[in-house]
Every structure is written in structure tokens, then in C-alpha cells.
Design a protein that fits this description.
single chain; about 10% strand; globular
């Protein structure tokens, strides 16, 4: 699936919920299903700067695509990074760099986060794009 197709799936899933209490519960549930980062990658180097909570993101390349794993010590933040991992993992660096993140606005996530969590979300997206840039430059 392309990034856009995955983002559209996420938009469709969020549109099934009537209110933000249900949507936040869904975000929490997504975090519970997040494939966890290996403990060896929970390092300062993999920590997202600018997040109120601890968030670790690790990236490795397999067959020309980037595979992301992540974790967080906060349940909402863990759900947010799960959404981003789902949207961008197993995609080429070029696809990740060219992808927009409008789906975040379409599901209304950023506007329902506290300012510090919204800043953290932006930092997570930047880090994912930085990994893609690094892998693209390496190739």
C-alpha cells in the first residue's frame, strides 16, 4: 500500500467515531498494538527531542524500504507514534520524503492535543523525515 492509501484508511477509521473521547480511546488502543522497539534501541540517540514524554523511534532499511519501530512511556503519545509508524513504515525514503501529513489535520488530531503534545507530534514527523533523508543520502 502507498502512504496515501494508508493515510486514507486512518482517516476512514477515525471518521467512524462520533466524539473525541472515542477517538482518544482508539489512539490508546493503537498504541497498545504498536510493535515495540527492541530495548537496545531505547537510547538517547533514538529519543525524539521536543516531546514532553519519552518517545523512541528506531529505523532500519530492508529491501530499499524503511522499517520503523517505536515506543513511548505515555499512552496517548504511544498511540500517536503508532499512527505515524503505520503510515510511514515499510515505505521507500523517497515516498516518505514526498508524503504530506495532511491526514493528521483531517482526523483532527493536532487540534485536540495540548500544545506540548502537538509540538511532540511535529517533532516525531520531523524525525521520521530525517531518517528517510539519511537513508536516501546513504544510497
Amino acid at each position: 500500500m502507498t502512504i496515501k492509501e494508508i493515510q486514507n484508511e486512518i482517516i476512514d477509521e477515525f471518521s467512524m467515531f462520533d466524539d473525541w473521547d472515542e477517538r482518544f480511546q482508539y489512539v490508546i488502543d493503537l498504541g497498545k498494538d504498536l510493535p515495540l522497539i527492541d530495548e537496545q534501541f531505547k537510547t538517547d540517540e533514538n529519543t525524539i527531542k521536543g516531546c514532553q514524554s519519552k518517545v523512541w523511534v528506531h529505523a532500519e532499511e530492508k529491501n530499499g524500504n524503511i522499517i520503523f519501530t517505536a515506543d513511548s512511556d505515555a499512552i496517548i503519545t504511544k498511540g500517536i507514534i503508532a499512527i505515524l509508524v503505520r503510515a510511514f513504515s515499510n515505505q521507500s525514503p523517497k515516498s516518505i520524503l514526498e508524503a504530506d501529513t495532511d491526514f493528521i489535520d483531517e482526523i483532527g488530531l493536532k487540534e485536540h492535543l495540548s500544545p506540548t503534545r502537538a509540538n511532540g507530534l511535529v517533532s516525531m514527523i520531523k524525525q521520521i523525515k530525517m531518517y528517510a533523508l539519511a537513508f536516501q543520502a546513504k544510497n
